[in-house]
């Protein structure tokens, strides 16, 4: 393979120089644009930084030419593709894009060269990968060439892809493009992903050699975007399936593993409107406490709004139960978005988070009165003698009931659910039909069977989206990685036998599927959905914290490492 650096302008593409992995610095001129090339080598990794300034618009490409098998992060490319990381409109949820979660290309021949560009925010979210196997060439770019040779319209998408060329204006500020070049022995998509994750973590993360940490950090690092809504400079998206939009809930979990400056930007990106929806006021208050403990500055006015909103939810009935707002269909009151709850219902997930948020509010200096004690007492009353149910009015098995309790332990060193309630609930769920070969159902009937549509209704009516789901998909009995792993971790903290083994079992379900973790596993079909869902990184973070406290067993990490290092 031969590699070179190209500069693309509106007038055409121009060769700047050949690329070798020898350290070097040079300056070139292309028309009215000055180009600095800085190459530095460190072992098997070469870092390339390209800077353009002058008069005009342009973008850079690494151009590869030669006989090899070309891989994107997704898979081997058999035909021409243009892959993107962002559709550039935060408001378009249903959109069409030929995307790749990581801006990278691997050329597999006698050896394997992996090229990975820095996260898309550095290029105004316009990183692209143009791969043309038919011509034995590819472009790893900091701009967009336009076009979509591999696009096929889906009936589920409301918007056509944004396929216009994009050039950076270097008349106003320099344009910088960074990428790394890694020599690898990987030859399969799983092993290429592993080596890519390790390289990203080594270059832009802590790089301690842990593959599991690299998977957790790298996927989120590549989800950083320029915030095109304007509420902050940067934010982090859950995955490329979510447009260029931060989801406050997901970002709360994602930013635990990201650099402090990203957490600060993502925290400040929460709008006054958004922090009053669903369980977001709970998360914002807890997030504010975390920012304070990290030495950051709390957004006091927004935190005041969130605290007031929590008090409103507690005042709806007045007996300690927390009732968050929903939409007109009584859905979208928490992460379990398309499940409907009656207005005075209290779900265990939100109630537990409320307990944690009230403790955080107190630590932040708010006068919470007796609300913490009342909310905690009400949470304990949800236990029906056999298990903690989905909600007061929905007597079903659920895995998310202990999220607030685990978070309370991580932040304050204490749990609040009685050990016996956790032990009984855990045994009830894991000995039932809720446990499947593809993970444990997020919700299930008391015997573990899938729930009928009526179970997801409020006042006799379902959210129409819920009614369209087949069994085992999404919230209709799917197995969510983050919530199941938190369920097992919480049980471990409470001293439940078998929880550690179940943590390992559940992680392997994802990794055996394709070497990544997913939003959820379909518990009937067995397929993983949305690889590299950002919030799954919190599982690594929490277990690392627990291990450092001398409570966690590194057997979990050892199992993850052995699996990921040997995956092919």
Task: Describe the 3D structure.
The protein has 568 residues and is of the alpha+beta class. It has 15 helices and 23 strands. α2 crosses α14 (537-548). It is globular. The two termini are 24 Å apart. The model has no long low-confidence stretch (mean pLDDT 94).
Number of strands: 23
Q: Give the distance, in angstroms, between the N- and C-terminal Cα atoms.
A: 24 Å
Helix- and strand-based class?
Answer: alpha+beta
Overall mean pLDDT score? 94
Q: What is the number of helical segments per DSSP (H or I, 4+ residues)?
A: 15
Shape category: globular
Unreliable segments (pLDDT under 50, ≥5 consecutive)? none
Secondary structure: helix percent: 25-40%
Which band does the percent of strand residues land in? 15-25%
Largest sheet: 7 strands, antiparallel
| Radius of gyration, whole Å | 25 Å
Quick summary of this structure?
The protein is of the alpha+beta class and 568 residues long. The chain has 15 helices and 23 strands. Strands 1, 2, 6, 8, 11, 12 and 13 form a seven-stranded antiparallel β-sheet that branches.
List keywords for this structure.
568 residues; alpha+beta; 7-stranded antiparallel sheet
What's the SSE blueprint?
Blueprint: E1 2-9, E2 12-18, E3 24-30, E4 33-42, E5 45-54, E6 57-65, E7 69-71, E8 81-84, E9 104-108, E10 112-117, E11 128-132, E12 137-141, E13 168-169, E14 175-184, H1 189-204, H2 211-221, E15 224-226, E16 234-236, H3 248-254, H4 260-268, H5 280-293, H6 300-315, H7 348-363, H8 371-381, E17 397-398, H9 403-412, H10 419-430, E18 435-436, E19 439-440, E20 443-444, H11 464-467, E21 479-480, H12 481-493, H13 499-514, E22 518-521, E23 528-531, H14 537-548, H15 555-566
Antiparallel strand pairs: 1-2, 1-6, 3-4, 4-5, 5-14, 6-12, 6-13, 7-9, 8-11, 9-10, 10-14, 11-12, 15-16, 17-20, 18-19, 21-22, 22-23
């Amino acid at each position: 393979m031969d590699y070179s650096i190209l500069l693309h302008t509106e007038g055409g593409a121009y060769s700047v120089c050949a690329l070798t992995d020898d350290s070097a610095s040079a300056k070139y001129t292309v028309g009215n644009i000055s180009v600095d090339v800085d190459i530095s080598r460190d072992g098997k990794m070469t870092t390339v930084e390209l800077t353009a300034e002058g008069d005009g618009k342009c973008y850079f490409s690494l151009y590869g030419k030669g006989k090899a098998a070309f891989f994107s992060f997704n898979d081997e490319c058999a035909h021409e593709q243009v892959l993107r990381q962002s559709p550039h409109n935060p408001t378009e949820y249903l959109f069409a894009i030929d995307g790749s979660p990581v801006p990278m290309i691997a050329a597999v021949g006698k050896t394997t060269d992996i090229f990975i560009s820095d996260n898309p925010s550095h290029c105004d979210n316009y990183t692209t990968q143009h791969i043309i196997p038919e011509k034995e060439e590819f472009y790893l770019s900091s701009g967009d060439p336009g076009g979509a040779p591999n696009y096929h319209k889906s009936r589920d998408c409301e918007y056509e892809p944004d396929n216009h060329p994009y050039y950076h204006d270097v008349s106003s500020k320099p344009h910088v493009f960074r990428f790394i070049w890694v020599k690898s022995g990987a030859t399969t998509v799983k092993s290429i992903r592993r080596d890519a994750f390790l390289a990203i973590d080594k270059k832009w993360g802590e790089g301690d050699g842990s593959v599991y940490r690299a998977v957790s950090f790298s996927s989120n690092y590549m989800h950083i975007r320029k915030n095109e809504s304007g509420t902050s400079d940067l934010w982090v998206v859950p995955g490329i399936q979510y447009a260029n939009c931060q989801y406050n809930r997901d970002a709360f979990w994602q930013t635990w593993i990201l650099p402090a400056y990203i957490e600060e930007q993502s925290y400040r990106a929460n709008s006054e409107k958004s922090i009053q929806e669903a369980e977001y006021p709970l998360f914002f208050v807890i997030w504010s406490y975390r920012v304070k403990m990290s030495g950051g500055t709390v957004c006091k006015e927004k935190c005041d709004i969130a605290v007031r909103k929590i008090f409103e939810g507690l005042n709806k009935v007045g007996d300690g139960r927390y009732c968050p707002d929903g939409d007109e269909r009584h859905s979208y009151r928490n992460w379990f978005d398309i499940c409907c709850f009656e207005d005075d219902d209290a779900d265990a997930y939100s109630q537990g988070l409320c307990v944690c948020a009230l403790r955080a509010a107190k630590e932040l200096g708010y006068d919470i009165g007796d609300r913490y004690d009342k909310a905690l007492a009400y949470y304990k009353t949800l236990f029906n003698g056999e298990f903690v149910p989905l909600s007061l009015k929905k007597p079903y098995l659920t895995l998310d009931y202990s999220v607030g309790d685990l978070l309370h332990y991580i932040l304050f060193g204490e749990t609040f659910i009685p050990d016996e309630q956790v032990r009984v609930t855990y045994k009830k769920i894991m000995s039932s039909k809720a446990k499947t070969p593809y993970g444990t159902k997020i919700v299930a009937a008391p015997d573990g069977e899938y729930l009928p549509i009526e179970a997801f209704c409020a006042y006799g009516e379902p959210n129409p989206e819920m009614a369209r789901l087949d069994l085992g998909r999404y919230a209709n009995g799917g197995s969510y990685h983050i919530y199941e792993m938190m369920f097992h971790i919480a049980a471990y903290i409470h001293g439940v036998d078998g929880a550690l083994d179940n943590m390992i079992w559940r992680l392997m379900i994802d990794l055996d599927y394709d070497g990544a973790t997913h939003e959820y596993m379909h518990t009937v079909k067995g397929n993983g959905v949305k690889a590299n869902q950002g919030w799954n990184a919190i599982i690594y973070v929490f277990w690392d914290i627990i291990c450092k406290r001398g409570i966690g067993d590194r057997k979990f990490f050892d199992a993850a490492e052995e699996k990921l290092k040997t995956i092919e």
